[in-house]
Amino acid sequence: MASLLPTTDPIDALLSAHGLRRTSAARQVLGWLLAHADTSYTHAQLQAALQADQALAVPAD
């Protein structure tokens, strides 16, 4: 039997708890930061890292 309780995505819960909009970009950034908690990046470095991850995940035509 399926649970009647709503399931909450932990990333959405964190974004909401801090008053941030739950956009796909916000989810991606927060997910990446949580997965790489031992790193410290500037905005530019984070953007480059996210783009590199996307390039690896999306197959070229």
Summary of the model, kept short:
With 61 residues, this protein is mostly helical. The protein is 57% helix and 0% strand.
Overview of this protein structure:
- This protein has helices at 10-17, 24-35, 43-57.
- The chain has one domain (11-57).
- 57% of the residues lie in helices and 0% in strands.
- By secondary structure, it is mainly α.
- 0% of the residues are buried.
- The model has no long low-confidence stretch (mean pLDDT 83).
- It contains 3 helices and no strands.
- It is globular and about 35 Å long.
Q: How does the helix and strand content classify structurally?
A: mainly alpha
Taken together, the total number of domains comes to 1
Q: Characterize the overall form.
A: globular
Largest sheet entry: none
Indicate the proportion of strand residues: under 5%
Global Rg: 15 Å
- pLDDT averaged residue by residue: 83
The number of helices is 3
Low-pLDDT residue intervals, each spanning 5 or more residues: none
Please give the number of β-strands: 0
Helix content: 55-70%
Attribute tags:
61 residues; mainly alpha
Task: Write the topology of this structure.
Elements: H1 10-17, H2 24-35, H3 43-57
